[in-house]
Structure formats: structure tokens, C-alpha cells
Amino acid sequence: MASTKVVAPLLALTLLLFAVAAHGCEPNCSGGGPVIPTPTTPSYDRHGHCPIDALKLRVCANVLNGLVGVKIGAGPNECCSLLQGIADLDAAVCLCTAVKANVLGINLNLPVDLSLILNKCSKIYPSGFTC
């Protein structure tokens, strides 16, 4: 009989310790209110990138027709359809890459001519962007 009187409280104490260890002091911890995780800001490339093959941007040379006296490639709709769906910064990077590789076949006055192409395609030349 004596052994059951010792085992019962010991078993109850063990169960109590396991319960405390499993649940800790939640939700009544003495460290203040509940901890709210701060959302992380999404990381992105602040320099932009070009998801378009630079050779395909040859069609963008004709957007400048009449402005710099050039008629090369297809019409402006083909150029704008290439730039459609990408961010303004990425579009500027694509055109800059095409100009540096001389894909357009003309010498451009940067950034004025880049902004003309971007404006024609309803894009905005990013402030602070340098080609």
C-alpha cells in the first residue's frame, strides 16, 4: 500500500512537469505582450535586369523615326509589345543594353532618346537611371 501512496503523487508531479515543459508559459509569459513577427521586406534587384533578348530590340529603332531621321526595323508597336509587361526600370535597362551593343544600328543621345522610346511605349524613364 505504501508504494501506491508514493507512486501516485510522483506520477502526478511528473505529468505536471511535462505539461509545463510542453506549453511553457504561453500565453501568460511575464515578458510583455505577445510577440508579433515583423514582415520581411521583399528583396529585389534595384539595378534592374533585362528579360528580353537584346537582338529582339532592333525593332525599337523605328520608334525614333521622324525624331532623329531614322527608319530601321519595324514599327513602334512591335517595340512596345516587347516592353509591355515589364517594369519601367527593366525596360530602360533593356534599351540601354541594346544601345551599348549597337543593336539598334544608330548612335543615340542618351538619355533623351531612351526616354523618347520609353514614353512612346507608355513607360517612364526612371529617375536617377544612368545608361
UniProtKB/TrEMBL annotation:
InterPro entries: Bifun_inhib/LTP/seed_sf, Bifunc_inhib/LTP/seed_store, Hydrophob_seed_dom, Plant_LTP/defense-related. The keyword Transcription does not apply. Residues 1-24 form the signal peptide. SUPFAM superfamilies: Bifunctional inhibitor/lipid-transfer protein/seed storage 2S albumin (SSF47699). Keywords: Signal. Residues 50-131 form the Bifunctional inhibitor/plant lipid transfer protein/seed storage helical domain. This is Bifunctional inhibitor/plant lipid transfer protein/seed storage helical domain-containing protein. The lineage of its organism: Eukaryota, Viridiplantae, Streptophyta, Embryophyta, Tracheophyta.
